[in-house]
């Protein structure tokens, strides 16, 4: 059952919108002046008091004005927020950024985090896909001395990992070329996580000359194919958050800066937002990290062939224009998916 009356819903929406725009606690006279003929100041004061008792509003220090609580913001985004359309200027900016040639995944992610940061005036971040979930494009074998090989695994979208292996014996140029051709014919097009099981299965049933090739392939795959490459996260525009009025307090800004600089901690926070379809909003105390309770995340997965491969979004103060951030994150996630689909 909805705990709020229609008048309280309308008033809560007014207070959130006003506070987001003005950064000042909102009083009854401000609402009465801003929304003429909506409610009388006496009605506004009474309803504000009730909303505070219900923990949708609070008032800082001795101020007569109110500000939304986490519960107030949550009700607002779940029930009151109006859909915002992307404006033509932002759409044009995004199109220009993605029109420039992007030869690999790193360039795409750098550009995407820049777009999110620039258009939100907050921090934009993008989580890289896991290397082992990518599709193998080719294998390169380069001799290093008599019996060492540099093995380079090139995945879709320009992801590269390399390892050196001691083969224990010298391999002729012709044998090396034959082995390289075999690996590429046999393995390209597989998801990297599937490569080792595939080679092992083939080896069990191989005979004669093929058995030797599969033995060599198994040795190379087992020794050089990365199996647990950690995720990476790129964030752009951290300073945008620290310049917000909420973080004028030195201690508060110091704690937030420490979190933003600690990439592993930040990655854990982002991953903790969960993996669900559509744009997700996580507000204040909904995070597990106290140092970031004054912030909100707006995130969305990006997918390749209907499979989630990464996450992107915006980090900013709880006082943000949620409807505009939701539209931006949704639009950019679709652009990233389109870019990925063109590559593979």
Describe this structure in words.
This protein has three domains: 6-80, Winged helix-like DNA-binding domain superfamily/Winged helix DNA-binding domain (Arc Repressor Mutant, subunit A), CATH 1.10.10; 88-129 and 231-343, GAF domain (Beta-Lactamase, 2-Layer Sandwich), CATH 3.30.450; 132-224, Heat-inducible transcription repressor hrca homolog, domain 3 (Enolase-like, domain 1). The chain has 13 helices and ten strands. A hairpin with a 3-residue loop joins strand 4 and strand 5 (148-155). The chain has 344 residues and is α+β, with helices and mostly antiparallel strands.
Structural class of the secondary elements? alpha+beta
Considering the protein shown, what is the CATH homologous superfamily of the largest domain?
Answer: GAF domain
Q: Please name the CATH architecture of the largest domain.
A: 2-Layer Sandwich
Low-confidence stretches: none
- Give the N-to-C terminal Cα separation: 47 Å
The overall pLDDT average reads 88
How many domains? The number is 3
The helix/strand series, from N terminus to C terminus, equals HHHEEHHHEEEEHHHEHHHEEEH
| Strands, total number | 10
- Tell me about the largest β-sheet: 5 strands, antiparallel
* Number of H- or I-type helical stretches: 13
List the strand order in the largest sheet. Answer: 7-3-10-9-8
Task: Please report the first level of CATH classification, the CATH class of the largest domain.
Answer: Alpha Beta
Q: How much helix is in the residues?
A: 40-55%
Anisotropy-based shape: elongated
Beta-strand content? 15-25%
Any idea what the radius of gyration is?
Answer: 27 Å
CATH fold node name of the largest domain: Beta-Lactamase
